[in-house]
Amino acid sequence: MAKNLVIVESPAKAKTIKKFLGSNYEVIASNGHVRDLPKSQMGIDIEHDFEPKYITIRGKGDILAKLRKEVKKADHVYLATDPDREGEAISWHLSQALKLDPSEYKRITFNEITKNAVKNSLKQARDIDMNLVDAQQARRVLDRMVGYKISPILWAKIKRGLSAGRVQSVALRLICDRENEINAFIPEEYWTLDVALEPKGSKKGFIARYAGELKNQEQLQALMQKLEHAQFKVTERKDGTRNIKAPNPFTTSTLQQDASRKLNFSTQKTMRLAQQLYEGIDIKGRGTVGLITYLRTDSIRISEEAQTAADAYISEHYGKEYIGTDRQPDKKGKRIQDAHEAIRPTDVTLSPVIIKESLPRDLFRLYQLIYQRFLASQMHGAVYETASLKLEAQGERFTASASQLKFDGFMSVYKTDDEKEAVASLKGINTDTELTVKDLDSKQHFTQPPAHFTEALLVKTLEELGIGRPSTYAPTITTIMNRRYVVKEQKNLYVTELGEAVNQMMLKAFPVIVDVEFTANMESLLDGVEEGTISWKTIIENFYPDLESAVKKAEAELEHVKIEDEVTDISCDLCGRKMVIKYGPHGKFLACPGFPECRNTKPYLERIGVVCPKCGKDIVIRKTKKGRRYYGCENNPECDFMSWQRPSEKACPNCGGVMVEKGNKLVCINENCGYIMNK
Predict the structure, then answer these.
(1) Domain range spanning residue 669?
(2) Residues 38, 25: one domain?
(3) Within this chain, do residues 95 and 200 fall inside the same structural domain, yes or no?
(4) Catalytic: 294?
(5) CA 398-401-403 angle, 5° bins
(6) Does 155 share its domain with 193?
(7) d(CA 664, CA 676)
(8) Rounded to whole angstroms, how far apart are CA atoms 224 and 437?
(9) Among the options 54, 294, 473, 485, which is catalytic?
(10) Tell me, what CATH number does 172's domain have?
(11) Portion of the chain with pLDDT greater than 90, in percent
(12) Were 230 and a residue from 67, 181, 393, 527 both cysteine, which residue would form a disulfide, CB within 3.0 to 4.6 Å?
């Protein structure tokens, strides 16, 4: 019998596939890419049509030698790397590195690692799709150009070890812009007024809310006086139903967002665990099983086979009335990789309960999330009975509403963030109902600034803006955190001093690179390569001259960010030398210039010329353990004064308190005062 060789990326994937193919097939892993651009140089021949210079990745020589031996033994070679751009490129690089004749090998892909999917892929073997390969090459070359041309400038002007990137620099800009919005935000006061009403002869009351605007306490008090002894009357009642559609199954982006919100997983962790679920897990009594479909996708399409299986499962376990009837078609807006399905379990009968004992805790939680979301997506929507009232008193309008769950539908297995719990009933209340006022409840509120970016929100924003693709979100976020451009505190992402410096330099020297619209347009062009409508080298040819020009200008004109040792007037406690300012991973610190003989260090307290309102000592710039900047008293911990916004030298003319900078305004730090003035 003919000997067949199947090459995949990972040993786990090889193990799972081997089980389906039998003794006539040898399955070997390449352990990812075998060729790449060299690390020691840019690796792109600018003078000769931007041709990439690929070399064998260090440490992959033995793997390639083993693969060459197996190729010689085989009659047919199947390249079975992942079904996306990156996977297609790995297959092409393998064909080049192994010097395979086109007649000797075929490309196979499968969206899920199941027996049927793998067997069917062999029947549909094809040639390598060079459009997909070129799309990957274009991205790789562009990213290499941006990284290798701009990063040295950051090293020279700020500090070594920094990096710039086509997507990462835009992500950093988004976070910086959001921080600036938050810092410039000035809260505005408003009030709400709730009235507790009770129908005559009943003890089951309800709450009606004032429908107008109350911008300050004076307006509230005027309204309260007006309503004293007022008679409330229902002027209108509306009854109806509210249908909540079942959520779509997961894409890469929505999986990362939900796993972040519900499981507190980082994007990187989510993708790592999802990869394991896709490649195969040892399940008691079943061997190695690929539990989910391919994890990098922006499609919500579900195969007919999977839909039929889900319908049968839902009918058996929940009832026919739970089967979905209003499933959403996949919208073709931005580029969608429709070759892939949405992320779903490969076998709907493998419920989380059945395989719980075979999975570590985090793998189980992620599988359960994917399973429940898929099952919910194939179920009927939830139905609420709703009632709303319009009320009037002394010419002022109030409203009340209530809802009650009538049919739980998909909510029997999955809860979304949008659902509200059922609230008090308005049963029996109509325009004839006499009402008694039991209580008036007023509350002061302030408008809130935009939310800090979380990993989930950043992924959502990048996707909405068309920046990056499903495969890039996790590595992008990981990179800007590893570079210490941003830090994560309680899910929120904050910009560090280093991140601010890098972003400012990028905005000044390379505004196009960090322009959101430009980056989104570039993604569209790169998608055109994938579709075969644009040559990838045409994109590079048009991009490189502008990049080269900006780099030369930056090298000549950009000023250094001051990080050299700056001598202070503070004497070393151990040897008496004047201490110098050093820059470490967490920012500036004081060090003795006598190193290594004297290793004395101290925190560096940068004064801003403003005295502490609590103790009269100087306010200094401090940093949290993770590198986020704030303003506090030099006498900390004895004095606990702190502010996220920079205090001003000007005192509040109203109360004498500290004013802090918010954009082009100064705002009194005393909330009870809240005085605002221009800088």
Answers:
(1) 566-678
(2) yes
(3) no
(4) yes
(5) 180
(6) no
(7) 11
(8) 13
(9) 294
(10) 1.10.460.10
(11) 67
(12) 393
Return the structure tokens found at 316: 């058996």
Predicted structure pTM score:
0.81
Query: What pLDDT, on the 0 to 100 scale, is given for residue 369?
Result: 98
- Strand order, beta sheet including 435-446: 233-244, 382-393, 396-407, 206-210, 189-199, 435-446
Instruction: Quote the DSSP letter at residue 321.
Output: G
* pLDDT of 198 strictly over 50: yes
Instruction: Count Cβ atoms below 10 Å from residue 357 Cβ, excluding itself.
Output: 9
Nearest CA to 654 out of 633, 665, 642, 669 is that of 669
Pair 496, 482: CB distance under 8 Å: no
d(CA 36, CA 57): 6
Distance, in Å, from the CA atom of 451 to the CA atom of 244, rounded to the nearest integer, reads 26
- Distance between CA atoms of residues 450 and 448, nearest Å: 7
Residue count (the chain): 679
Question: How sure is the predictor about 421, in pLDDT bands with cuts at 50, 70 and 90?
Answer: low
Between the alpha carbon of residue 453 and those of residues 174, 538, 668, the distances in Å are 9, 36, 26
Three-state DSSP state, 223: helix
**Burial degree of 174 (CB within 10 A; 0-12, 13-18, 19+):** buried
Q: Which of 425, 446, 467 is the last residue of a domain?
A: 446
The DSSP bridge partners found for residue 590 are 581, 602
Same domain, 666 and 646: yes
pLDDT for 423: 59
Domain count for the chain, please give it. Answer: 5
